[in-house]
Amino acid sequence: MNPTENINHDAVLRARVALLGSGTLPVRERVAAYRVLVRVSPLAYLPLLAAALFAYSRQEFAHRPGIAVALRAESVAAARRMCALEPEETQLLLTALVHYREQLLLMERPEELAAVEAEMEKLVATGGGSPGVRWDLSGA
């Protein structure tokens, strides 16, 4: 099967036009566009998706922790995919994990928090970045 058979080319075109067409796109619309475009160009759009998901969780859902934690978990998943494609991109994953950890702390979810912290420690121990140095996930 051709990998492009399952891609909605109209959706890809709309996403590209949205990103190129307007000056400042709301974070919600950037997330939607990156979710589409990551299917056709993962190396280009996974870091952008991870950053936009964090910004979306912080800007739009700070008052809804259940949604915020889900968006941050999706950000971590995007960063993990990026690491699978580009193993040297571990700082992106570490930063996404730091932000996910922050949300888990706020929500008092100790079991998940322990798993995230263990993953962070393993990443740092294997030379995968420094928790004090962050990728720009500010969404700016």
**What structural class do the secondary elements suggest?**
mainly alpha
Rounded Rg: 16 Å
Strand content: under 5%
Largest sheet entry: none
End-to-end Cα distance, whole Å, is 39 Å
User: The CATH topology, please?
Assistant: Serine Threonine Protein Phosphatase 5, Tetratricopeptide repeat
| Total domains | 1
Q: Can you name the CATH architecture?
A: Alpha Horseshoe
* Basic shape: globular
Query: Residue share in helices?
Result: over 70%
Structure summary, number of beta strands: 0
Poorly predicted regions: 133-140
Number of helical regions: 6
Mean pLDDT: 87
CATH class: Mainly Alpha
SSE arrangement, N to C: HHHHHH
Helix and strand topology:
Blueprint lengths: L8 H13 L5 H11 L4 H19 L4 H21 L4 H18 L2 H16 L15
Helix pairs in contact: 1-2, 2-3, 3-4, 4-5, 5-6
Please tell me about this protein's structure.
The protein contains 6 helices and no strands. It is globular and about 40 Å long.
List its traits.
single chain, Serine Threonine Protein Phosphatase 5, Tetratricopeptide repeat, 70% helix, mainly alpha, globular
Quick structural gist:
The chain is mainly alpha-helical.
